[in-house]
Structures are given as C-alpha cells and as structure tokens.
Amino acid sequence: QATKNRLALRSKLPVWDKLPALRARPPRFFVADHARFSRPGPGVVDGVETLAAVLHPGALAADVAARALRGVLKLVVTEEKEEGEGKASEARDGSAGGAAQRWRFEPVLPKSPPAAAASPPPAPRVPTARCASALVATDAGGLVLFGGEASNEVCGPRALRLADVWTLGAPGGGWAPCSYPSPEWQGPWECGATANESVPTARSNHAAVACGAHLLVFGGWYLDGATPLGDAELLHLETRCWTHCSTVNRGPPPRGNPTLVYSARRHLAIVYGGWDRRELLGDAWCLDLEAWRWHEGPASQPAGKLQGKPQGKLQGKPDAGEGGPDARTDHTAVLWQATPDTEHMLVFGGTTKLGASQELWALDCSGGAPGSWEWSNETPLPCNGPWPPPRTSHAAAIAGRGASASLVIVGGQDGALGSGAAAILSDAWIYGPLGDSKGRAWSRLDWKGTYPLQRCRHSMVVVDDLAIVFGGFDGARIVDDHHSLFCAPLNRVGAQGSSGAAGGDPAEDGAAALARQQERWVAERPLAVEELPADDRAKAERSKIPLAMAKALHRHAVKSTPPRDTYIDPDTGYSVFTHAFLKRRPCCGNACRHCPWGHVNVPGRKGSDEETRKADLEW
After folding, report:
1. 205 vs 198: CA distance, rounded Å
2. CA atoms of 281 and 283, how far apart (whole Å)
3. How many other CB atoms are there within 10 angstroms of residue 29's CB atom?
4. pLDDT band at 289 (very low <50, low <70, confident <90, very high)
5. With the C-alpha atoms ordered 118, 120, 121, 122, is the resulting torsion angle positive or negative?
6. CA-CA distances (angstroms) from residue 509 to 382, 385, 502, 521?
7. Does pLDDT of 351 surpass 50?
8. What is the pLDDT of residue 517?
C-alpha cells in the first residue's frame, strides 16, 4: 500500500507520462521487495535473477523464473470514459478524449487454480502406438520396452523416433492366451544420465538385449529417419541411469536394422547385419562386456555381392569355403544354448540383394576368438516338411531350453507379394526340437483367425509357453492400441505326440503331400532379370521388339525345372503369372498376359483357338 501511495504522488509529476516503461502497452512497471537489491549478501543473486526474469522473459529455466518472480507485482493500466462518479482513488485524468486511466497491481505469476473437490482416477498410462521398437525380457523376469517409431497421425507430418522406457507387467491373473490383454504398463521411466550425458538417443529399428543388470541398445535410425546410429548405450535397470557404452576401441560402423544377442556364459554381445542406406552389411561384431572391447567376427560375404542361388527356392548347405550368409538387413537373430558349453546364434530371413530370404543360418559362438567362429547353413535340401516362405521385418524368439528348444517366427513382409498390405505376412511358425538334427521340422502355429497376425516391424518375447507380440505396421498404418499387443500359445497345427512337433513321415498320404507342395508354392519367389542367363539377357536388351525382356523372362521361367510360377515385370515391377501357373486352373477372366486358355472367360472376348494358345505359349 505504501508503494501505491508513492506511485499516486509521482504520477502527478510532469515527466510521468514520458517514462518509456509506462508508455509501453502493457506497461513494463514492476514492484519487488527492495531487500533483493539493497542488502549486500547472497540475496543479491535473487535480485539479479528477478531482474533477468522481468527484463528478459524466457531467458531463465522455468523453475528458476518461477522462483525469481515469486511476490513480484506488475502494473496493469486500463482506460475508461469518465462518468463523473464512482472513480477509485487510484484513477487519474487522461490527457485525451476525456478518458481516465485506472491502474492496479497484479502478481506476475498467475494464481494456481483451486483443487477440484473430487476428480476421477487418472486413466492408466500406456505407451504410444508404435512400430520398430524393442521389447526385451530381462534376467529378473520383467519385460522392458524401449524406443521405436510413432504414428504420423499421432505425431504430425513426420514420424517421431522415441526414447522412452516402459515396463510391461502381466495382467492381474497372469499371462494367458488373449487377443487383447490388459497388462499393467508402468512408465515412462524417469531416467537419469551419467555425468549429464545426452542419452538416451531417440531411435527406431534398433537392436536391444538385456545383459545382466543392463539394457544394451545399438544401431537404428535417428530422428530424421535417415541417419544410422553407431554408438551403443547402456541403461542400468535398477538405478534407471543411462550412459554411453564407452569402449577401448572403435566398434561397428553405424547401421539401422541390425540384430543383437547376448551370451551370459561368456558375457558377450554379438551384433550382426543391417544396412547404412548405401549397402547391406553382413559383418558380425562381438562386444566383450568385461574388457569393453569390440572384436570382429568371422569374415562375411562382401557387402552387395550376389552369392549363392536365388532365394526363390530353398538352398542347401554351402560347399566348403563358401563362407557365411549374404549381407542382409531386417533379419532376426536369437541365441540358442544347446548345452551348457555350446551356443549358436540362429539367423533367419531378412532382405538380401535378391530380396526377402527364407534361409536359416547358425553361427557357432561357443568358444575361441570371435574371428574363428564358423557359419553353417541350416537350410536343408530337401526340407523335412513345410518351410516358411521368405520374409523380412519379422520377429523371432527362442522357446524352451537346451536340446528341446524351438525357434519361433511371427509375421513379416515380402515385397514380391505386392505393395502395402499385400506384402504383409499373417502367419506364425515354430521350428524344433533344435537338438534333433534329423527330426526337427517347421510347423505352423494355430493362430490365424484368433490373433491379429498381419504385421511387420514388431517385437516378440516368449514367456514360458506363451508368445507376447507387441507393436508393428500392418502395411497401411501402425497397428493401433487395441490390436497392438496379444499373447498366444505355442500350439502347432496338426501337432503330433507330446512335443507337438510336425514330422516328415515318408509314408504320408496324398493329401499331406499336396499340402506340403502348396507350402512350397507359397515360398517361391518370382524370377528376376538378374537370374536370366547372360546371353538371354543381352539378347533381350538389344532387341527392339516390345516387351522383349518380359518375354525372355517368361521363356526362362517355363523352361526351368521345375517351372517357375511368376516373374517380375522389368517395366512395372509387378509380379506376373506364367503359363506354368495358369494352366493348373481354369481361365480366371482377368485377361492374364500368359493365359493358356485364350481368355475364354474374359467378358467381351471370343473363345479360345489354337493360334491364340500357341501365341501365348511362345511368350
């Protein structure tokens, strides 16, 4: 009140209206406790902060500014027409138009709203719907989610890379088969960082694995979705503190879409594959978590070099000296501990220079220096029963232990099947028992129609005999919250015996043999230009006949043993059915390019004749 009285007196001075602070709208006139400025001592620091907060709004951190402005008042001036009565004591005549200025003081900081008398309990917090994240099972039995890519619809015109950490807890009654469970999410974690390091780094398409009391994260794509990451980061799962994984030497080059497994027996983490937007990578690296030193693994195939046979057919084991698998990305890798002293990293599928793969490779990492480890191609020829079709961006996990363990794969995509949702696979497979080299076989899991399988770029862990699948992309958008998480049992289709393993009985009946043949049809990849013999390809490139290359592809496809069902049109990139495929069924009426029936069922077309059939066959 004393300040107001002094202000009333000073406002009558001639220079009052000339003060810039008062001519400004709103006025820049503030009242603060003089003790902050006039008494020497630590309180002067408070005065400096108050001046900074008043004169330079936004220059201080929010919490510092709030403390500095506590108790500070600001002058508020309003102009009203004089009515001759009811004027407050603070009013004074204006200089123009018979207007009166009224001024009052208000706190700079707004008053906190009163607490509601009763409010409903807050809705349970759940992580944003996402894909390309990492769901990891820890040694303590918990499930931890880190990072990923959020939906454009949620985060604006550009996808958002995330750096949040969540704990996934079991529903109240424990995990049970359910297409829409209600788990107990906890998060996002409030994590610290060692020495104020700028960690964690937001990323997607990364690899993560639990290493004892730590979560190790490597690779992925940065905020722009185009910058590959190469620095490993560690999260201590008990203190919830992040740190850079400082090593004594240089590690793997930056990459997105790698895989990462951990050997508790040797305290090693193994990174394999990925790509850096220039080339596919096929190198393996080992991180010694005791010496914090990176070691290069066994020599791999040169990046980008075509090796072996096309992925359209199952490949047999390589000849001696052929080396490891072709460079690849978007594959899966899991660690199988066959015995207390024997470990293998199993790699399935992924994208190679030839497209989506269906190969299964094993890296023996049981002992010795990482450079001496050996790859083996576990893709048999002939296969013992059905085999999963080629895929990339799928999820995999190990179920069980030791010789009775099995490999589980779920979903994925194959661009050869089409674009968008047409490329997404809606199946799940289990391979085992891994310890039985002669009897192990693939079987479908009986999930279709019950669980939302159509997805790629998702995560999966196995808890007991249940697979927990989270997140993903369905070909059009990120899987929504309702379908994002499901829990399914590891029940095989047509399970036999107590183990449920699908056998390869040579005495199987005709129906079973046909079913196996149909599985092989699904697994075939279209013929590509790169697979043409050099002479045929050169001749087609020189030819001026329309569709010369497509005709060369079709001739080569139908003359193959066995004949190929499809090829890739070099002009459009679409998959085209060959005569070999179309002759196994009546004319579909869609005017297929290589119809052997003369388009007899195409509306408006005449029936077939011998000349039309011959012309089509010569394609």
Report:
1. 20
2. 6
3. 17
4. very high
5. negative
6. 18, 13, 15, 19
7. yes
8. 39
Q: Which of 406, 402, 393 lies closest to 442 in space, CA to CA?
A: 406
CA–CA separation, 505 and 222 (whole Å): 50
Alpha-carbon gap, residue 17 to 37, rounded angstroms: 26
Residues 581-604: b if buried by 16+ CB within 10 A, e if exposed: bbeeeebeeeebebbbbbbebbee
Paired tokens of 439: 């009897």
Q: How many CA atoms lie within 13 A of 501 on its CB side?
A: 19
Counting residues of the chain whose pLDDT is more than 70, the rounded percentage is 80
Residue type for position 35: A
Cα 336 from Cα 405, distance rounded (Å): 8
Place of tokens 């024997």: 342
Helix (H, G, I), strand (E, B) or coil at 315: coil
Give the residue from 590, 611, 587, 594 showing the smallest Cα distance to 527: 594
Report d(CA 265, CA 343) in Å as an integer.
9
Q: Which two tokens stand for residue 144?
A: 């931890």
Token pair 């006139």 is at which residue? 29
Question: What is the value of pTM for the model shown?
Answer: 0.62
List Cβ neighbours of 480 (8 Å cut-off, separation of 6 or more). Answer: 129
